[in-house]
Amino acid sequence: KTKKQEEEEEEEVSDSPTEVKMSQIIMPCHCNHRQELCVGQLLKWIDITACLSAERHAMSPCVTASMDDINFEHTIRVGQVVSIKSKVNRAFNSSMEVGIQVSCEDLFSGHHWKVCHAYATFVTQRKETGERVLLKPIVPETQKEQLEYSLAAERRRVRMLHDDIIKDLLTHGCIQQGDSVEFSNAVAAEKTKVESVELVLPPHTNHQVNTFGGQIMAWMVNVATIAARYRLCQTHPTLRTIDMFTFRGPSQIGDRLLLKAIVNNAFTDSIEVGVRAEAYQDLGTNRHINSAFMIFEVLDDHGKPCTLPRLQPEPLEGERRFQEAIARKKIRLDRYIIVKHVYLSYNNVSTLKTLASRKKWRLSSEKDKVRLYSLEEKTMLSFRVDTEVDVPAHTAFSLLAELCNRPSWDTYYQKCDLIHQVDDDDFLYHVVTPSVHPKGIHQDFILLASKRRPCGSGDSYVIALRSVLLTSHPPTEGCNRGEVLCAGFIIQDTKNNIYYNQASPEVLPYISSDIAGLSTSFYNIFSSCREYLTANRLHCTSETITGENLNSSPQSNEADRLSLSLCSTQQ
């Protein structure tokens, strides 16, 4: 985001009744020996703030169910003020997503900076009768709230599949196996083991007499730091990331919490520590209540990452943890783009919805109820087209989702073939488009189409498109392989129809003359689209079609170009 965009978002005043703010001045008792705020203490404050937001909306007791990945961008020192703001983004049946923003302020310099953001899932506790508490829906007011509300459904989908994806990556060999052969200077993984027992006392619990999730995480951070610091690198590590984790069960006053930590893998400049928390009573069996994976960095005096010693994993279980750590690192580096379609699909849909939330669109021209808008942001150009059709939303969604039929109404789609159906919601297509120049060569694309039906009231139908790399489908001879970074349709039950599009060097020739008012090619295409939908409609219901943008760029030899999630492209 540009600084201007962030300032515009801050100007949006939200009167959300679920918003809770906490400010804490950092005292020495909150810090480690380096006078930096302990991450465990910050996690406790985050959990408390988010729980208050959840209970304010539910009007009943709530517990922490899970926390998404948290990346700590900066440390906080003694004397500085940390501000935590939380708000319920969306409520489902008995669970809700709470968004948390953490920032810091230096009172003497007046400098503000972002520390981290997080998404936590809270669930309501059952009533005394055993009946579930059903949550009332959230009504987003600002554009930013609408975007978070929409993306919450996508994040929920990812959470439900996260554990299965790690197993699938390893089972099908999608991740290159790490080298765990013995090295002369390697540190044995068993030497990094740490165990600690904590007795749950009243100060560690909430008003429901359950152990605070943040308190459990603080204890887990403590043993993880010991494993990373004293048992491996022998210097102070900095906690940078905590992977997504889920609380498997509650803990109460009187429980003994057994915390186990071990270094799973040591990479060139980072360490993954796995931590397991088990609860038990005097004579009871151990209950597994949580597991987490924490990533540490070791920095030198200049703030540069230090090279770490190699790790020799234990046989069997240690080897499994060693390989799974590589899979998790791959996911973190690629931001879930290339390694698994579920995460690529999430980025595909979220990028499209983010583009739809952009402000300050300028009307360029209008003809036959088709309105063309453009938006320029520094070197970025985006455009949108609004139109209306007399077709039910579900019908329009079904027709437009059949991408193979698009050549029948879109002259810029010369050919479209289905390559593979990934699942019920995601499909891979090969698309060929003609050149705008008489003697130019055609372009082709490998597109992932991600289709989403409404998850609740106020949601839209979404068809998101973006390029992917398939080794089985190299560039076609006689065609220039292009890349679509963000494209698709959004179909809404409103009276306003919007089509968004972003322009790259390949797309600009198709649209520039329309923006300048010298051509009507896009009007003709969307008029043809309306005719196509109307001719194939099942019922006559006034709906809105919001199509979002095609954004192409020349093929890059670098595979990581596919992991970009851009909301506009260079002019």
UniProtKB/TrEMBL annotation:
Superkingdom per UniProt: Eukaryota
GO molecular function terms listed in the Swiss-Prot or TrEMBL record: carboxylic ester hydrolase activity; lipid binding; long-chain fatty acyl-CoA hydrolase activity
HotDog ACOT-type domain mapped to chain residues: 16-128, 190-302
Alphabetical UniProt keywords: Cytoplasm, Fatty acid metabolism, Hydrolase, Lipid metabolism, Repeat, Serine esterase
Chief place of localization: cytoplasm
Metal-binding is among the record's keywords: no
SMART domains linked: START (SM00234)
GO cellular component: cytosol
Localization per Swiss-Prot or TrEMBL: Cytoplasm
Gene3D superfamilies: 3.30.530.20, Hotdog Thioesterase (3.10.129.10)
InterPro entries assigned: Cytosol_ACT, HOTDOG_ACOT, HotDog_dom_sf, START-like_dom_sf, START_lipid-bd_dom, Thioestr_dom
One GO BP annotation of this record: fatty acid metabolic process
Catalytic activity: butanoyl-CoA + H2O = butanoate + CoA + H(+)
Domain named START: residues: 361-517
Involved pathway(s): Lipid metabolism; fatty acid metabolism
CDD domains for the chain: BFIT_BACH
A Pfam entry, by short name: 4HBT
PANTHER family: ACYL COENZYME A THIOESTER HYDROLASE, ACYL-COENZYME A THIOESTERASE 11
This protein's name: Acyl-CoA thioesterase 11
Native source organism of the sequence: Takifugu rubripes
Lineage: Eukaryota, Metazoa, Chordata, Craniata, Vertebrata
Name of the gene: LOC101063913
